Amino acid sequence: REGIVWDNGSFLNVYAPGSEAFTSGGFDIAWIDEGQDATPDLTADMMTSVPPTLDGRPGAQMIVSGTAPDYQDGNLLWKILTMDGAGVIRHGIPLDTDPAELQAWEPTEDAPLARVRELIELNHPGVTFTTPLSDVADNFKAMTPKAFQREYLSLPGEEGSSTALISQPLWLTSRSELTPNDVTKPKEIAVA
């Protein structure tokens, strides 16, 4: 364990992940960084061990930070982001963003709806503050699309999600304005 103790008795301790750090402790704040890296077992362990250390502490908080996870079900960061009653500060694009908007940095002839630069400027808290937009543009070219989307757009992977057979963004883009009267109904339907 590493830490700092101030003259007034306040302290900041840094622990390796796991429940041993929180056994029999009492904390005002428990901050877990890189929450997207927690395995399902570690997530269950942390959710069992951390909240009880905050009991009886007025205003106590469990804070989980990180970038978008590769998977959702069983992931600590995703669990907190979607937990009822959690105060969430989210810096990312909407989960139902049209995939066509993510095809290129700027609109092109091949990707006329692309607008990654614009999405970065609208949603990434560090751009122009700590991170030059040119660095992000370089990383857009260097990284795989999924890695870039998780790191810079906070778009999580869909594994373990309830996206079903067709992902939400693709489903939304497939809508049409047809009415039942516009569709020719078959005389027979077979269901196996």
Question: Which features characterize this protein?
Answer:
extended, 28% helix, alpha+beta, two-stranded antiparallel ribbon, 4 strands, 192 residues, two-stranded parallel sheet
Poorly predicted segments: none
Mean residue pLDDT: 82
Give me the strand/helix succession: EEEHEHHHHH
Discrete helix count: 6
Number of strands: 4
**Percent of residues in helices:** 25-40%
- Give the CA-CA distance, first to last residue: 60 Å
SS-derived structural category: alpha+beta
Explained architecture:
The chain is α+β, with helices and mostly antiparallel strands. It is 28% helix and 8% strand. The protein has helices at residues 40-54, 76-81, 116-123, 133-142, 145-153, 168-173; strands at 2-5, 11-14, 29-32, 61-64. A two-stranded antiparallel sheet has the order 1-2. It starts with a strand and ends in a 19-residue tail after the last helix. 20% of the residues are buried.
In short:
The chain is α+β, with helices and mostly antiparallel strands. The chain contains six helices and four strands, in the order βββαβααααα.
In terms of topology, how is this protein built?
Layout: E1 2-5, E2 11-14, E3 29-32, H1 40-54, E4 61-64, H2 76-81, H3 116-123, H4 133-142, H5 145-153, H6 168-173
Parallel strand pairs: 3-4
Antiparallel strand pairs: 1-2
